[in-house]
Input
Amino acid sequence: MSKDDVLHLFFDAETGADYPDGDEWLMVEYLLPRDVDLPDRLKNPDYFTSLGGGKVERQWRHREIVRYRHGRLKRLEEALVFIDKKREELYSALRDNSVTSKLEGGKS
Output
């Protein structure tokens, strides 16, 4: 199971658009869109918080605000590197805590 199968990314480029430098920021949510029991050590703002609603009882997300400076390629590349690095970190935490094996086994 790859990180692409486990963590889905949601980008919100509209958040903060009403502020003078709002076009330089991007909200990124790393979603674990399945109802799975997470170990307590992963239930905190550094890893995952719950997201209620929808058809699933409980989903998990990690939210980051990222400065990308629209129009500056170097900053955009740095933002993309940060986003991918954070995704890898979150996926590793899920894998190290046996959450990915629960997903592979179809357990929720």
Notes: The chain has a mean pLDDT of 82. The chain is about 30% helix and 25% strand. Helices lie at 3-6, 73-96, 99-104.
